Known about the structure:
By secondary structure, this protein is mostly beta strands.
Amino acid sequence: GEQGGNGLADILFGKENPAGRLPITFARSADQYPEDMYSLTDDIYYKEDVFVGYRYFDKFDKEVLFPFGHGLSYTSFEYSKMDLSVSEKGGKRIVKVRTDVKNSGNKDGDEGVQLYVHDQKASVERPEKELKGFQRISLKSGEKKPVEFLLEDDAFSFWNDEDKLWTVEAGKFELMLGSSSSAIQLRKELNIK
Protein backbone atom coordinates (compact mmCIF):
# COMPACT_ATOMS: atom_id res chain seq x y z
CA GLY A 1 0.00 0.00 0.00
CA GLU A 2 0.94 3.62 0.30
CA GLN A 3 3.20 2.98 3.31
CA GLY A 4 5.23 0.30 1.50
CA GLY A 5 8.09 2.70 0.83
CA ASN A 6 8.32 3.68 4.49
CA GLY A 7 8.21 0.02 5.54
CA LEU A 8 11.00 -0.88 3.12
CA ALA A 9 13.09 2.08 4.29
CA ASP A 10 12.65 0.98 7.93
CA ILE A 11 14.02 -2.45 7.04
CA LEU A 12 16.89 -1.18 4.86
CA PHE A 13 18.06 1.30 7.50
CA GLY A 14 17.74 -1.16 10.40
CA LYS A 15 14.81 0.40 12.24
CA GLU A 16 12.89 -2.85 11.75
CA ASN A 17 14.41 -6.32 11.54
CA PRO A 18 13.34 -8.50 8.58
CA ALA A 19 12.18 -12.01 9.43
CA GLY A 20 10.69 -13.46 6.24
CA ARG A 21 11.73 -16.94 5.06
CA LEU A 22 11.90 -18.34 1.53
CA PRO A 23 9.23 -20.95 0.77
CA ILE A 24 11.31 -22.27 -2.17
CA THR A 25 14.93 -23.03 -3.08
CA PHE A 26 16.87 -20.89 -5.54
CA ALA A 27 19.47 -22.82 -7.53
CA ARG A 28 22.78 -21.25 -8.59
CA SER A 29 21.88 -21.78 -12.25
CA ALA A 30 19.06 -23.20 -14.39
CA ASP A 31 21.08 -26.34 -15.20
CA GLN A 32 20.88 -27.40 -11.53
CA TYR A 33 17.14 -28.06 -11.90
CA PRO A 34 15.83 -31.43 -13.16
CA GLU A 35 16.10 -31.74 -16.94
CA ASP A 36 12.45 -32.61 -17.36
CA MET A 37 11.35 -29.43 -15.55
CA TYR A 38 11.36 -27.47 -18.80
CA SER A 39 9.34 -28.58 -21.80
CA LEU A 40 8.87 -27.17 -25.28
CA THR A 41 5.42 -28.74 -25.38
CA ASP A 42 2.43 -28.47 -23.08
CA ASP A 43 3.25 -31.87 -21.59
CA ILE A 44 5.32 -31.83 -18.41
CA TYR A 45 6.28 -35.08 -16.72
CA TYR A 46 7.08 -35.00 -13.02
CA LYS A 47 9.66 -37.74 -12.49
CA GLU A 48 11.07 -36.41 -9.21
CA ASP A 49 8.86 -38.68 -7.07
CA VAL A 50 9.18 -37.32 -3.49
CA PHE A 51 12.34 -35.40 -4.40
CA VAL A 52 10.87 -31.96 -5.07
CA GLY A 53 12.20 -28.61 -3.89
CA TYR A 54 14.96 -28.78 -1.29
CA ARG A 55 14.66 -32.60 -1.29
CA TYR A 56 15.90 -32.70 -4.90
CA PHE A 57 18.92 -30.51 -4.16
CA ASP A 58 19.75 -32.60 -1.07
CA LYS A 59 19.53 -35.88 -2.98
CA PHE A 60 21.98 -34.77 -5.65
CA ASP A 61 24.14 -32.77 -3.21
CA LYS A 62 23.77 -29.52 -5.16
CA GLU A 63 24.97 -26.32 -3.55
CA VAL A 64 22.19 -23.77 -3.96
CA LEU A 65 22.16 -19.99 -4.04
CA PHE A 66 19.41 -19.61 -1.41
CA PRO A 67 18.06 -22.68 0.42
CA PHE A 68 14.47 -23.38 1.45
CA GLY A 69 13.79 -21.40 4.64
CA HIS A 70 16.57 -18.87 4.03
CA GLY A 71 16.08 -15.41 5.52
CA LEU A 72 18.10 -12.37 6.50
CA SER A 73 18.27 -10.61 9.83
CA TYR A 74 20.20 -7.82 11.55
CA THR A 75 20.72 -10.10 14.54
CA SER A 76 21.90 -13.67 15.15
CA PHE A 77 20.45 -16.66 16.96
CA GLU A 78 21.96 -19.58 18.87
CA TYR A 79 20.31 -22.97 19.30
CA SER A 80 21.19 -25.09 22.33
CA LYS A 81 20.21 -28.16 24.28
CA MET A 82 18.03 -30.29 22.00
CA ASP A 83 15.96 -32.75 24.08
CA LEU A 84 13.75 -35.63 22.90
CA SER A 85 11.13 -37.53 24.86
CA VAL A 86 8.63 -40.19 23.78
CA SER A 87 5.24 -40.78 25.40
CA GLU A 88 1.87 -42.28 24.53
CA LYS A 89 -1.50 -40.57 24.54
CA GLY A 90 -4.67 -42.40 23.57
CA GLY A 91 -2.62 -45.25 22.09
CA LYS A 92 -0.63 -42.87 19.90
CA ARG A 93 3.09 -42.24 20.13
CA ILE A 94 4.05 -38.61 20.76
CA VAL A 95 7.64 -37.42 20.28
CA LYS A 96 8.39 -34.13 22.00
CA VAL A 97 11.33 -32.14 20.62
CA ARG A 98 12.52 -29.21 22.70
CA THR A 99 15.32 -26.70 22.25
CA ASP A 100 16.36 -23.29 23.52
CA VAL A 101 16.87 -20.43 21.07
CA LYS A 102 18.72 -17.28 22.10
CA ASN A 103 18.95 -13.95 20.33
CA SER A 104 22.72 -13.49 20.55
CA GLY A 105 22.78 -10.24 18.58
CA ASN A 106 22.19 -6.65 19.60
CA LYS A 107 18.80 -6.14 17.89
CA ASP A 108 15.38 -7.59 18.65
CA GLY A 109 14.24 -10.06 16.02
CA ASP A 110 12.21 -13.06 14.94
CA GLU A 111 13.62 -16.50 14.19
CA GLY A 112 12.01 -19.23 12.09
CA VAL A 113 12.89 -22.53 13.80
CA GLN A 114 12.52 -25.53 11.47
CA LEU A 115 12.39 -29.22 12.40
CA TYR A 116 13.46 -31.88 9.89
CA VAL A 117 13.35 -35.69 10.11
CA HIS A 118 15.61 -38.20 8.33
CA ASP A 119 14.91 -41.95 8.22
CA GLN A 120 18.41 -43.43 8.41
CA LYS A 121 17.57 -46.85 6.96
CA ALA A 122 14.25 -47.24 5.18
CA SER A 123 13.03 -50.05 2.94
CA VAL A 124 12.09 -47.41 0.34
CA GLU A 125 14.02 -44.44 -1.00
CA ARG A 126 13.33 -41.41 1.19
CA PRO A 127 14.61 -37.82 1.23
CA GLU A 128 17.70 -36.81 3.20
CA LYS A 129 15.43 -34.69 5.36
CA GLU A 130 11.77 -33.76 5.47
CA LEU A 131 10.33 -30.64 7.10
CA LYS A 132 7.98 -31.75 9.88
CA GLY A 133 7.41 -28.53 11.80
CA PHE A 134 8.32 -24.87 12.08
CA GLN A 135 7.71 -22.04 14.50
CA ARG A 136 8.38 -18.34 14.43
CA ILE A 137 9.47 -16.79 17.71
CA SER A 138 10.16 -13.19 18.68
CA LEU A 139 13.19 -12.55 20.87
CA LYS A 140 14.57 -9.37 22.34
CA SER A 141 18.34 -8.92 22.21
CA GLY A 142 19.90 -11.38 24.68
CA GLU A 143 16.59 -13.18 25.35
CA LYS A 144 16.33 -16.98 25.33
CA LYS A 145 13.10 -18.97 24.88
CA PRO A 146 12.23 -22.65 24.67
CA VAL A 147 10.73 -23.97 21.44
CA GLU A 148 8.77 -27.22 21.46
CA PHE A 149 7.43 -29.50 18.73
CA LEU A 150 5.10 -32.48 19.15
CA LEU A 151 5.37 -35.17 16.47
CA GLU A 152 3.03 -38.10 15.92
CA ASP A 153 3.66 -41.20 13.80
CA ASP A 154 2.79 -39.40 10.56
CA ALA A 155 6.04 -37.43 10.92
CA PHE A 156 7.99 -40.68 10.53
CA SER A 157 5.80 -42.46 7.99
CA PHE A 158 5.88 -43.02 4.23
CA TRP A 159 3.26 -44.17 1.75
CA ASN A 160 3.59 -47.93 1.23
CA ASP A 161 2.54 -48.65 -2.39
CA GLU A 162 2.22 -52.39 -1.80
CA ASP A 163 -0.01 -52.22 1.29
CA LYS A 164 -1.71 -48.95 0.24
CA LEU A 165 -1.23 -47.32 3.63
CA TRP A 166 1.05 -45.01 5.60
CA THR A 167 3.83 -47.00 7.26
CA VAL A 168 6.25 -46.30 10.11
CA GLU A 169 9.20 -48.68 10.11
CA ALA A 170 11.17 -49.43 13.23
CA GLY A 171 14.67 -48.00 13.15
CA LYS A 172 16.82 -44.96 13.69
CA PHE A 173 15.70 -41.48 12.74
CA GLU A 174 17.73 -38.30 12.90
CA LEU A 175 15.91 -35.16 14.02
CA MET A 176 17.43 -31.83 12.98
CA LEU A 177 16.74 -28.25 14.03
CA GLY A 178 17.84 -25.19 12.10
CA SER A 179 16.91 -21.94 10.43
CA SER A 180 16.83 -23.33 6.86
CA SER A 181 17.19 -26.63 5.03
CA SER A 182 20.95 -26.08 4.83
CA ALA A 183 21.55 -24.28 8.16
CA ILE A 184 21.06 -27.17 10.57
CA GLN A 185 22.15 -26.23 14.10
CA LEU A 186 21.35 -29.33 16.20
CA ARG A 187 20.93 -33.06 15.53
CA LYS A 188 19.72 -35.91 17.69
CA GLU A 189 19.02 -39.58 17.00
CA LEU A 190 15.74 -41.26 17.88
CA ASN A 191 15.14 -45.01 17.87
CA ILE A 192 11.57 -45.98 16.92
CA LYS A 193 10.48 -49.49 17.89
